[in-house]
């Protein structure tokens, strides 16, 4: 009974989102410098806002490759099964009735690839390199070779190869950028709305933001990257964040060699000198006039409200004004006081509590203060305007907060299944190789009691009955209690790091099983 109800709700939500948004994913990503965090770690986050993503977390082991080997490139696919084959992870071995993923192309392989944890996008590798992602609008649209063009790379495939080959953000940026330029980049969502991508990166020492879009005539690529200052936080909310660039300043910027020539050849913007050039202004459409969802009015606050919120929280400034202009918001801001990993987890859960935009208030929150909104729909076409867009939204399929630190193998991808507002983060340690089965099985289309995503998606959906009271009386305190237990357990782990990976994995699996299995009454 219950399962049917949830399944129906989930299916309906999917249809609305798909019909209204043309299957836009629209994620949020943060990058935090090492002097901005209490723990002294760099951090990157990713709320994966995806209606029907495969919820399984895979472990991709390290491998040696023969000379002359090639690496197959997977087509862009988010739904279950996002990959089928024996060459990447045990998780992806073909189940009865499944056929191996057919590659869209190949690139030269390297002698050795590193291990990493992978959700829809890769999370963290064994050297503590973490990544987040947010799809951005761009004027240059790449055309995939499966759609009549030549481009081979979607962003997730670029990120995976970055994880396989690199220990540092700079290395991954160079690898991703070079591959995109050589083999072509295409966006995940149709049209200009989804033609660009931002990747946030954190290694033990540095945090970076990388932007990539197509090159000329739908092929190749153009890219730029900027380092987040150590005491700063940067947020990407479906719009490029890098503005002025100085490609000669290699401490802070990395650029594709064609960044200026492509802008001129495609007549994207006018600039006299390289110093006048502005990446956001040049490569991105103006969200104040651009229709992000075809047939709908522009929704600039979709981006700027999230920028405003993180800038307000991190700088502890209650008086920042909200505008519809992304140029009013700096690439990154210095934090007013060091922030903890738990504070950053709370950022990913945010829905503007106690501000004018509090999504639990007002007529749209209904009788029971529900901050969940379904985007799109006829209403948004008939009445111009937009409602606030939270960080944690109904279609967030997971949130990851990667804490990259010394020694790198102790870095942690903290992962909350389903939307983080109603979920709890569990650790996936960079050097661990095994996780609880709850996180490695399941499918959004089929209800099951052995899947972490379903446990938390059920809670989230059930709360629609009376969000306010359920959050205040039951779910909120339970999230806090469980998150505290897990943070304490990892603190204890830190004080006496186990010598064997086996023990580390037992602790990790124990925490994951305890959360999903016992507390939420499954099994
Ligand atoms: C792109 O196409 C235009 C014609 O639309 C052509 O003049 C130009 O040479 C092409 N550029 C590249 C790099 O292929
Ligand atoms: C995170 O949010 C919860 C719920 O509002 C709160 O109890 C907790 O203190 C917050 N944690 C931090 C570190 O701000």
UniProtKB/TrEMBL annotation:
This is Dipeptidase. It comes from Polarella glacialis. Belongs to the peptidase C69 family. Secernin subfamily. It comes from the Eukaryota. Residues 1-22 form the signal peptide. One of its GO terms (molecular function) is dipeptidase activity. InterPro entries: Peptidase_C69. One of its GO terms (biological process) is proteolysis. The keyword Acyltransferase does not apply. PANTHER family: LD30995P, SECERNIN. The keyword Hydrolase does not apply. Keywords: Signal.
